[in-house]
Design goal:
By secondary structure, the chain is an alpha/beta fold. Helices cover 30% and strands 26% of the residues. It has one domain (40-146). This is MAP1A protein. One of its GO terms (biological process) is axonogenesis.
């Protein structure tokens, strides 16, 4: 409940990424620097904004180290998924300094992900990145869609 405490003790201020800010400047693209710190390790991370390049860059992958990254996006007209974000994964992971296994899970089979996979396959192997294709189909009422099972 740190957010309410900081707002109470500092009226007119909130926390954005752990930094006290003025609500007028709390937009995601604010000019505040992101504080440096150790990387965060998680089991699963969902790539923000349908894998568009608006919010995700190599720094995200340097700092958020996941065993599994879920990549959404099926709208080529809006740049989703973004080739730049997929390339940022390679760049960010190359700077980890440890060769942990990473699994990339695309939620849609798109031309962008297929081309990226084929063109960077050697680099993916070098960095210990596996791209999971959906291996199951889920059927719900009148709808069916690909799915994959992840166990921790």
């Amino acid at each position: 409940d740190e957010l309410s405490r900081s707002s109470y003790s500092n009226p007119g201020k909130t926390l954005v990424n752990g930094i006290k800010t003025n609500p007028a400047s709390s937009s995601p693209k604010s000019s505040l620097p992101v504080p440096m710190g150790p990387p965060v390790y998680v089991d699963l991370a969902y790539i923000p904004n349908h894998c568009s390049g608006k919010n995700t860059d190599p720094e995200f992958f340097k700092r958020v180290r996941a065993s599994y990254y879920v990549v959404s996006g099926n709208d080529a007209a809006n740049g989703e998924p973004s080739r730049a974000v997929l390339d940022a994964l390679l760049e960010g992971k190359s700077q980890w300094g440890e060769n942990l296994q990473v699994t990339l899970i695309p939620t849609h089979d798109t031309e962008v992900t297929r081309e990226w996979y084929q063109q960077t396959h050697e680099k993916q192997q070098e960095l210990n990145i596996m791209v999971l294709a959906s291996s199951s189909t889920v059927v719900m009422q009148d709808e069916s869609f690909p799915a994959c099972k992840i166990e921790f």
